[in-house]
Backbone:
């Protein structure tokens, strides 16, 4: 994972990325959110949508309201229900009267320390959007693209008029996405990457990190990176059985210890995928090749 860029960060500022797109950075930086969650406002002054309103922080909602100004908010769209993405939808909906739309509700119990954000237990959308379903406003159309993997309910949103894709946490501009079982699924994640690689989007706007100007090149590299990790796992298992945690020192040399749990979960997601494909098996916490 990349280190944080030097401050100041543009927290709370509305930055115009293209005529139909503005970005507002939330004040929630962390090892898993980079400089914070990026919320997007889509529209050109006559009615807008807000994508990933972010964490439940009043100052961020106020920054979004300032950026929106007198525009009518037609929809609040969420890519998934981690707590750095969807909770502010409730407050923003109360203040604007806009419906909450996008991903389906999803809550998993927290059984211990997590390697990603916990789930938004109160997310209750007015409308769940299916893959390929669109909603539109003055001069813009947003189409839902189902991209399970990071979590099973993850959606991206394609801005049809400009070729932009809002990628949430599926493709980020600073790090690969964390895939945490049981809901995170490496097989689904890889299939979703292949799905995006087959598209011809002009630019990606992720919820964390920089704008992606060469999306297909990045996605191709991400697919190759995951295949490389898979091959590392199989090679290490060729030396003998080991637990998921025992892969981390060999595969992630120099990684900050605070991120070891995330790396272990990523290895576990790969192992589960390899198990389904009949390449490895497990006995208790030990994994071996077949």
Residues:
């Amino acid at each position: 994972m990349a280190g944080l860029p030097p401050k100041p960060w543009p927290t709370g500022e509305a930055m115009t990325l293209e005529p139909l797109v503005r970005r507002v950075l939330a004040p929630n930086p962390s090892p898993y959110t980079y400089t914070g969650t990026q919320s997007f406002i889509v529209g050109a002054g006559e009615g807008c949508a807000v994508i990933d309103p972010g964490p439940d922080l009043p100052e961020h909602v106020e920054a979004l309201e300032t950026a929106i100004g007198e525009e009518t908010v037609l929809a609040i769209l969420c890519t998934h229900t981690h707590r750095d993405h969807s909770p502010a939808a409730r407050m923003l909906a109360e203040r604007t009267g806009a419906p909450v739309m996008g991903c389906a509700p999803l809550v998993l119990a927290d059984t211990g320390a997590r390697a990603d954000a916990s789930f938004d237990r109160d997310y209750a959308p007015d409308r769940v959007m299916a893959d390929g379903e669109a909603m539109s406003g003055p001069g813009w159309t947003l189409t839902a693209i189902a991209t399970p993997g990071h979590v099973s309910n993850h959606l991206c949103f394609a801005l049809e008029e400009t070729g932009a894709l809002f990628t949430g946490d599926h493709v980020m501009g600073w790090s690969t996405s964390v895939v945490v079982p049981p809901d995170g699924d490496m097989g689904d994640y890889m299939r979703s990457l292949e799905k995006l690689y087959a598209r011809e989007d002009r630019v990606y706007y992720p919820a964390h990190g920089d704008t992606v100007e060469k999306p297909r090149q990045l996605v191709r590299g991400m697919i190759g990176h995951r295949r490389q990790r898979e091959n590392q796992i199989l090679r290490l298992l060729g030396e003998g059985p080991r637990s998921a945690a025992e892969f981390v020192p060999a595969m992630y040399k120099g990684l900050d210890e605070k991120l070891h749990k995330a790396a272990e979960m990523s290895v576990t997601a790969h192992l589960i995928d390899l198990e389904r494909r009949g390449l490895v098996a497990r006995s208790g916490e030990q994994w071996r090749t077949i």
User: Anything to note?
Assistant: DSSP finds six helices and 14 strands in the chain.
